[in-house]
Design brief:
This protein has 373 residues and is mostly beta strands. The protein is built from 3 helices and 17 strands. Helix content is 13%, strand content 39%.
């Protein structure tokens, strides 16, 4: 789907404010300067006079001048105070994934020619223990309902498609906090084109408000087409330095000249608050069953449904000898008729297990597939 390729994200951080002098300060500086010039002129004239006369003239000049009889005193005009402008600064970024936890809700809708689509994405993140949840639902441009869910807890990932069935995967690789969300403030557009508009309260947080119009969007992918008009309104938390709200509107054409229009809304809540992310009920984590052991020294372990793969720094013959003995101890019966060398077949009740061993340098790559009839 072409519209899925569009990436829009807000890159924001805290801005430092500096102040310019107000009108009152400028007026005082001007009056002091004029007074200094006046005194300096008088002192120059007094140099040629006697010291006593100079002092007398200086004292006379320093004394207040009385207004003429009958004259009404006049008041000096009061200076007009003006607000001190805040200095604009380009947006910079603090990543959402630097937080301890957050909930991000993004709603999207748009048109591509005569076709309409809409979607909602909810992603949640917890740093310790590491966990993420991602749920997407909507209607595509063909009017079909679409949905997807993904949960990652430690090294295990659970996925559910539109059909409603969960599958699980495990990996020895650590969870990368930036992998799961589709929309992240790390993705950039031309932030120097964004203008600071003031400070507001958003989602219970003090935030700075920016407007980024068409020129700021030129760096964003638009499915090979063009952006004709667009605007991003974004708010960044002054406490956390992350974007807590964003709205995006744009119109343009795709690479085939079809008119495209889109509207996105993005909000971040529950920053550093408890968020409970659990595995789906009744879904076991992928991996080897209890009666098939993992050989010592296994690494780069990956599992999905009934298949597990890993490497071990042992020769193929040594790995084969280990599994022939271990499977027999756990009640598995060896089967003949392997379709390839270094393939071991076993059966146990209504289950079968197939092991494929292949040499990779000094290591052996092991793939174990377990099926139930």
């Amino acid at each position: 789907m072409k519209w899925r390729s569009l990436a829009v994200v807000v890159v924001v951080s805290l801005l430092a404010l500096s102040t310019a002098g107000c009108a009152i300060t400028n007026l005082l500086k001007r009056e002091v300067s004029e007074k200094i010039e006046e005194v300096a002129s008088e002192e120059a004239e007094e140099v040629a006079s006697a010291e006593g006369e100079a002092k007398a003239e200086a004292a006379k000049a320093a004394s207040p001048t009385k207004p003429p009889a009958g004259a009404k005193p006049t008041k000096a005009p009061s200076p007009t105070a003006t607000a001190e402008p805040e200095e604009e600064a380009p947006l910079s970024l603090s990543s959402l994934e630097e937080l301890n936890s957050y909930r991000q809700v993004t709603t999207m809708s748009g048109t591509q020619g005569d076709e309409e689509w809409e979607m909602e994405i909810v992603s949640e993140f917890v740093r310790e223990p590491p966990a993420q949840r991602y749920v997407m639902k909507g209607v595509d441009e063909n009017g079909q309902d679409i949905s997807m869910a993904m949960i990652r807890i430690g090294d295990t990932t659970y996925m559910r498609g539109s059909e409603g069935e969960w599958i699980s995967m495990t990996s020895s690789e650590s969870l990368d906090p930036g992998e799961l969300p589709l929309l992240r403030p790390e993705d950039t557009f031309y932030t120097e084109e964004c203008k600071y508009k003031g400070s507001e309260q958003v989602n219970g947080l003090q935030a700075k408000y920016y407007v980024c119009e068409k020129e700021a969007l030129f760096s964003m992918p638009w499915v090979g087409g063009t952006i004709e008009s667009g605007r991003v309104d974004t708010w960044v938390s002054t406490e956390y330095g992350v974007g807590v709200k964003m709205t995006f509107d744009a119109q343009g054409q795709d690479e085939e000249g079809v008119k495209v229009k889109t509207h996105w809304e993005f909000e971040v809540t529950d920053i550093n608050k408890p968020i409970n992310i659990e595995a789906p009920e009744g879904v076991a984590a992928a991996g080897l069953p209890d009666d098939i052991p993992m050989i010592d020294g296994a690494y780069e372990v990956n599992a999905i449904m009934g298949m597990v793969g890993f490497k071990v720094d042992k020769a193929v013959a040594e790995v084969a000898k280990f599994y022939q003995a271990a499977m027999a101890r756990n009640g598995w019966t060896p089967e003949e008729g392997a379709m390839m060398p270094d393939m071991l077949n076993f059966s146990k009740g209504n289950r079968t297990a197939n092991l494929i061993l292949s040499e990779e340098g000094a290591a052996t790559q092991v793939t174990i597939m377990v099926n139930e009839e």
